Amino acid sequence: MFLAEFTVEQHQENPAQQHCGEKKYCPAGVLLGCELGEDTSNDEAQDGDGSGLMKLYDDYYRRAEDGTYGNSLEAFQVITCIDEAQRTTVAEDDAAAAQIHEMAPRLVPGTTGGYTCSFFPPTDDARTTITGAGAGPIVVVGTTGDPSTPLTSSRAMADALQDGRLVIVHANQHTGYNVNDCINDAVDSYLVDPTKVPADGLECE
After folding, report:
1. Helix (H, G, I), strand (E, B) or coil at 140
2. Helix or strand or coil: residue 141?
3. Would you call 41 helix, strand, or coil by DSSP?
4. By the number of CB atoms within 10 A of the CB, which of 106, 110, 202, 205 ranks highest?
5. Most confident of the ranges 13-17, 43-47, 100-104
6. pLDDT digits (tens, 9 = 90+) for 140-199
7. CA 202 to CA 189: how far, in whole Å?
8. Which of 56, 43, 64, 31 is nearest to 175 (CA)?
9. Cα–Cα dist 10/147, whole Å
């Protein structure tokens, strides 16, 4: 039994903006605040109150009220580089940045690469092909308007698995669980009783 809400090739088709609530838009990088409902921090900043924007910034970088920071972002980078065998050069990263900027100038306002793994030592435990062979049904949850894990990648993840079951959530946010009763019932039922596997292609609107 396994539940996956992670996808492959997550860098593809990332929109520069993501819809929050019914009227507001926010950069994809501050989706933590948007997932909780309509975000009004931009309006508040226009009126001279930047505390909402600072809260979104602190949430993203995992800053606690006592001024300490979590290390989840650092851990994510290290794990990514351990999984990735390729080490791009600075020149290659800069060239890629120009291409990404052309597609999403608001998402990538800079003109240089991120050099995420460029200076990491070679990995001795690179990512392997994942098929889920012998694991039984694996539920993959994909969201139609997810800027970080696009639905096309969720489909690719489900297709790569021996018995992948894709559940599609119609929502404009990152990840789909807790969007509505449909997805909650499908996931909860499966986790409690792995014989209750949702139908492949189930859509929760």
Report:
1. strand
2. strand
3. helix
4. 202
5. 43-47
6. 999 999 988 999 999 999 999 999 999 999 999 999 999 999 999 999 999 999 999 999
7. 14
8. 31
9. 9
DSSP string, 145-205: T-SSS-HHHHHHHHHHSTTEEEEEE--SSS--TTSSHHHHHHHHHHHH-TT-PPPTTEEE-
d(CA 54, CA 59): 8
With tokens 């409690």, the residue in question is 192
Cα–Cα distance for residue pair 17/172, rounded to 1 Å: 10
Cα atoms in the Cβ-side hemisphere of radius 13 Å centred on 157: 24
- Strand pairing of 17-20 and 24-27? antiparallel
Higher pLDDT: 130 or 159? It is 159
Q: Which two tokens stand for residue 95?
A: 């060239």
Q: Which of 179, 88, 89, 85 is CA-nearest to residue 125?
A: 85
The encoded tokens of residue 24 equal: 């507001």
pTM of the full structure: 0.60
Share of the chain above pLDDT 70, in %: 80
- Cα(74)–Cα(142) distance, integer angstroms: 25
